């Protein structure tokens, strides 16, 4: 079985949990969550999952939750494993062991701690003007196994400038911009007195905390890769990582593409190659993160565009951006045979 | 910086070009919804860009101005700011004083960019100048 097929199977299993066996029976909160999970796969359900999240945490945090999870594990059903400080939804002991391996490897190889509490704190710190009662509601969330797989795949693209390998790379002179990754339930909509819990944000980078977080709405998103949530998870994660690790290249990126006069303003210059997506049209940072996302996860999409956008409009073919990123990544200077080549669109497994 | 901007706000294109021999002009560009306009960089006068519709100045812009404290800027502009979504980022806020002809984007205690324009109404600013960047989700 290919890795991809295995992931699909695991995802399918996760989405079709059976009822907790009698006589214990699931607590009402758990039953509602399980019912919601059966239909997971769209934004509406994602929002419903968020609304149930408090109940999930309460269940996981007490003895009833422990009993339920043990019962589910012994019955061969999906369950929530505790790995260090993290909660991870898995379908088997083997998957639990693999999740533990991923978390350890990410720390050992890339110098990135998988720590949900750091993400919760990062959200609270960066939304300091949001209402206190909203900030207090920012909570950690359970990782999906597929998210950890995506996290490892995404970080592998940046391996030459992470962890101990950074000291033999072009980036040796700069501190690593990301040192932790988190799964948080929801972000906050804006950093003002009207900020509220955020039903839409998939991921977010927090520069001052050297952290990025994935959020619950990302569990079901396939916004760039319809029907392919695992690939979307990897892409979203690459996007967030790029906000940190690629920031140093932003100035040169703007110069070479000619689309921006500065980080926040489009040049309007005729003939300038536009970003690969409308989302990347917000500012140069989003443009660079979107471009990096496609460079690693779907390079043909970056080179050839979305198939409908005219030259100079978002979604157009981006050969300049592709060439720029090829050059930047090439300068990371790795030993031959260890180069982070882009994925092939047709060979994701 | 605000005083410097106010002093430059009314200058026509000819006046800027005559005062700044270092000026570089690009015609047929845009600034948000303002298009087509000419962009003039005249570093000896202003650390950003002037935008002109014909001879008329329609925007004075500075990106990431150094040593500008957003709190001091807001205090100088007084009450009455409107908050709009900023293109600079999810946590950035665009504060607009349309009647004063000033807007700036702030995030984490720094000014992302400053706009100075002819005093107007919020409706006019929103329709003629401002371009909503849309929701930030990642
Ligand atoms: Zn982003």
Automatic annotation (TrEMBL), chain A:
Region annotation Disordered: where it falls in the sequence: 1-29, 266-285
Protein name, as recorded: Lysine-specific metallo-endopeptidase domain-containing protein
Domain of life: Bacteria
Start-end of Basic and acidic residues biased regions: 1-17
Organism annotation: Solirubrobacter deserti
UniProtKB/TrEMBL annotation, chain B:
Gene source species: Solirubrobacter deserti
Protein name: Uncharacterized protein
Phylogenetic lineage: Bacteria, Bacillati, Actinomycetota, Thermoleophilia, Solirubrobacterales
């Amino acid at each position: 079985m290919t890795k991809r097929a295995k992931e699909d199977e695991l995802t399918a299993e996760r989405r079709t949990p059976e009822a907790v066996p009698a006589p214990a029976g699931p607590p009402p909160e758990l039953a509602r969550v399980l019912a919601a999970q059966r239909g997971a796969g769209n934004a509406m359900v994602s929002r419903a999952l968020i609304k149930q999240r408090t109940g999930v945490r309460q269940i996981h945090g007490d003895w009833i939750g422990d009993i339920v999870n043990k019962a589910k594990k012994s019955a061969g059903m999906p369950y929530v494993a505790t790995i260090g400080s993290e909660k991870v939804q898995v379908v088997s002991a083997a998957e639990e062991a693999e999740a533990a391996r991923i978390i350890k490897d990410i720390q050992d190889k890339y110098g990135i701690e998988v720590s949900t509490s750091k993400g919760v704190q990062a959200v609270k710190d960066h939304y300091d003007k949001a209402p206190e009662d909203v900030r207090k509601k920012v909570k950690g969330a359970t990782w999906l196994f597929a998210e950890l797989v995506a996290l490892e795949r995404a970080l592998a693209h940046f391996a030459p400038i992470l962890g101990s390998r950074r000291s033999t790379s072009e980036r040796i002179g700069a501190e690593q911009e990301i040192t932790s990754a988190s799964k948080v339930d929801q972000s906050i909509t804006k950093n003002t007195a009207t900020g509220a819990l955020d039903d839409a944000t998939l991921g977010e980078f927090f520069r001052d905390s050297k952290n990025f977080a994935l959020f619950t709405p990302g569990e079901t998103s396939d916004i760039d890769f319809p029907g392919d949530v695992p690939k979307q998870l990897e892409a979203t994660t690459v996007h967030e990582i790029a906000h940190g690790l690629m920031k140093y290249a932003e100035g040169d990126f703007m110069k070479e593409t000619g689309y921006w006069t500065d980080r926040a303003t489009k040049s309007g210059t005729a003939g300038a190659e536009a970003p690969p997506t409308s989302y990347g049209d917000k500012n140069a940072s989003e443009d660079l993160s979107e471009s990096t996302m496609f460079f690693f996860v779907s390079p043909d999409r970056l080179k050839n565009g979305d198939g409908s956008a005219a030259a100079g409009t978002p979604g157009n073919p981006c050969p300049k951006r592709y060439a720029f990123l090829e050059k930047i990544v090439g300068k990371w200077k790795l030993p031959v045979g260890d180069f982070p080549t882009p994925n092939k669109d047709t060979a994701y497994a | 910086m605000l005083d410097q901007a106010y002093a430059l706000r009314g200058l026509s294109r000819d006046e800027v070009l005559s005062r700044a021999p270092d000026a570089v002009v690009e015609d047929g560009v845009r600034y948000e919804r303002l298009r087509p306009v000419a962009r003039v960089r005249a570093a000896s006068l202003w650390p950003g860009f002037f935008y002109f519709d014909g001879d008329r100045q329609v925007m004075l812009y500075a990106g990431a101005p150094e040593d500008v404290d957003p709190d001091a800027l807001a205090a100088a502009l007084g009450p009455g700011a409107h908050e709009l979504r900023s293109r600079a980022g999810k946590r950035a806020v665009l504060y607009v004083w349309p009647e004063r002809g000033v807007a700036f984007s702030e995030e984490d205690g720094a000014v992302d960019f400053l706009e100075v324009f002819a005093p107007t109404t919020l409706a006019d600013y929103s329709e003629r100048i401002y371009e909503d960047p849309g929701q930030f989700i990642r």
